[in-house]
Design a protein that fits this description.
- With 209 residues, the protein is α/β, with parallel strands linked by helices.
- The chain folds into two domains: 152 residues, 3-Layer(aba) Sandwich (Ribosomal Protein L4, Chain: A); 41 residues, no CATH class.
- Helices cover 33% and strands 15% of the residues.
- The protein contains seven helices and six strands.
- It has a six-stranded mixed sheet.
- A hairpin with a 5-residue loop joins strand 1 and strand 2.
- Helix 4 packs across helix 5.
- The longest helix has 17 residues.
- The chain is elongated, with a radius of gyration of 27 Å.
- InterPro entries: Ribosomal_uL4, Ribosomal_uL4-like, Ribosomal_uL4_dom_sf.
């Protein structure tokens, strides 16, 4: 699959790159994509929720009424879950929602997501670029040149570039990651994916195994 290489103003440079069919043109595996996205979202959960149980409630321990002769059910503690202000039965406890997936499945999920985006013609390749200083204005100019300033976009860099990352941080609709940070969720979440030319080799090397 051939894609034209653009400059940061959105104009063709006259060069083309060949995207590997083993990464960008496979038959998508929807279940692998589902599992990888589910794991990503599960890992975002803090799991710090907690409700007080009977033993953790502050209250008197005296027996609140006599055992017999009241005509109602016996009751021994004001902290009982049946009373207002008592402990909660089977309430939430802190827990880790994460779960494991094997590397081959995660690799298949990312290739499936990239293939779906390639099929939708939502992938662009831009020549390598850098900023001398972090400046949001410069990053917006790049997005405008590529025609994606009002769309959710994902910019994939070859190596971590601090100035480019900092320049994009104030923009809600745009995300910048290095090739090693690319995830299935971020691929699917973006309307357009922009690969910096230097990122393709690493991505194809990692995902074509």
């Amino acid at each position: 699959m051939e894609v034209a290489v653009l400059d940061i103003k959105g104009k063709e440079t006259g060069r083309k790159v060949n995207l590997s069919d083993a990464v960008f043109a496979i038959e998508p595996n929807n279940h692998a994509v589902y599992l990888d996205v589910k794991q990503y979202l599960a890992n975002q959960r803090q799991g710090t929720h907690k409700a007080k149980e009977r033993a953790e409630i502050t209250g008197s321990t005296r027996k609140i009424k006599k055992q017999k002769g009241t005509g109602t059910a016996r009751a021994g503690s004001i902290k009982s879950p049946v009373f207002r202000g008592g402990g909660r039965v089977f309430g939430p406890r802190p827990r880790n929602y994460g779960f494991k997936l094997n590397k081959n499945l995660k690799r298949l999920a990312r290739k499936s997501a990239l293939s779906l985006k390639a099929n939708d013609k939502a992938i662009m390749v831009v020549e390598d670029f850098q900023f001398d200083t972090p400046k949001t204005k410069n990053f917006i100019e790049v997005l405008k040149g590529l025609g994606i300033e009002n769309k959710k976009s994902l910019i994939v860099l070859g190596d971590s570039n601090k100035n480019v990352y900092l320049s994009s941080r104030n923009l809600k609709g745009s995300d910048v990651v290095s090739s090693s940070e690319l995830s299935t969720y971020k691929i699917l979440h973006a309307n357009n994916i922009v690969f910096v030319e230097g990122s393709l080799e690493g991505i194809e090397l990692n995902l074509s195994k």
